[in-house]
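[agent] plan:
  1. take the single chain provided in the ticket
  2. run structure prediction with default settings
  3. attach structure tokens to the ticket
  4. add a short note for the reviewer (M.T.)
[agent] executing step 1
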Amino acid sequence: ANNPNVITDVVLQYACGEQVGPYDLASDGGLRDGDNTNTIDNNADTTRGRHEPQQFYDDCDARERNQGLFLADQNLDGNTAIYTRQNTNGNTHGFECPEER
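[agent] step 2 finished; step 3 output follows
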């Protein structure tokens, strides 16, 4: 049906190779599904799944956060992209960039 009040976007993200944007996953251990679903805490633990390379998180931690994002009444513990309204202390959850969640 054609309804002007309904706007839907579908975004599919996938990786088929070892090169994702500027990140060479082959030199960083490659993508892997892992044998368990616990949060990955270092790159050497091959039993855990990984969807972003370590360098992706390191770049996020080095980049200044977007000052235009809504913070509500939250006080952030830092000023890089790993600190957000929903992640004020910069906890890691795998190698994803919290600002981009």
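[agent] step 4 note for reviewer: The chain has a mean pLDDT of 80.
[agent] ticket updated
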